[in-house]
Amino acid sequence: MAGSGGSLSRSGLRGREAELERLGELIASVARTGSGALVLIHGEAGIGKTALLTEAVARARAAGCSVGTGKADELHHIVPLSSLAASLHGDRPLLSGDVFAGLVGGHDQRIRLVESLAEAIETAAGRQPVLIALDDVQWADPLSRFVLKQLPRRLRTSPVLWLLTRRQGPAEADDEILVAARDELPAVTVPLSPLSGAAIGQLAGDALGEGVDERVRNLLGGAGGNPFLAVEMLAGLRTADACGDPVPPGLVTGVRGRLGSLRPGTLRFLRMGAVLGRRFRFHDAAALCGLAPSALVPELDEAVRAGLLDDDGDRLAFRHDLLRQAVYADIPPSARKALHREAATHLVLAGHRPIDAVSHVLEGALPGDEEAVALLGRAADDVLPVTPGLAADLMTRALELAPPARPSWFAVGERAIVHLTRAGRNREALLTGDRLLAARPPLAALSRLQTALGGTLWNMDLADELLRRAETALALGGAAPEVEARLTALRALALSRGHDLDAARETGEHALRAALSAGDREAHVLALSALGEIALNAGENTVALRHFTALSAVDPAFLPEEIVACTHMDDFASGERLLARAAAGPDGPPRQAMLLWAQGHRHLGLGRLDDAEADLMTMERLEDDVQVPVQQVNARVIRSRIALLRGDREAARQHLAAARERLAAKPNPGNTAAVRFLEALHAEADGDVRLALDRIRQVQQEGPFMRWRLLRTWVDCAVRAALHGADRALAEDLAAQAVAHAERNPGVPTAAGVAAQAAGLVADDPALLERAVELLGESPRPLVRAAARADLGRALLAAGRIPRARAVLSDAHAMFAEAGAHAAAARVRRGTAAAGPGDRAGRGGRGAVAVRRPVEGWEALTVSEKKVARLIAEGHTNRSAADLLVVSPHTVNTHLTSAFRKLSVNSRVQLAHLVMGLRGG
Question: Potential cystine with 651: which of 535, 643, 738, 773 (Cβ 3.0-4.6 Å)?
Answer without folding.
Answer: 643
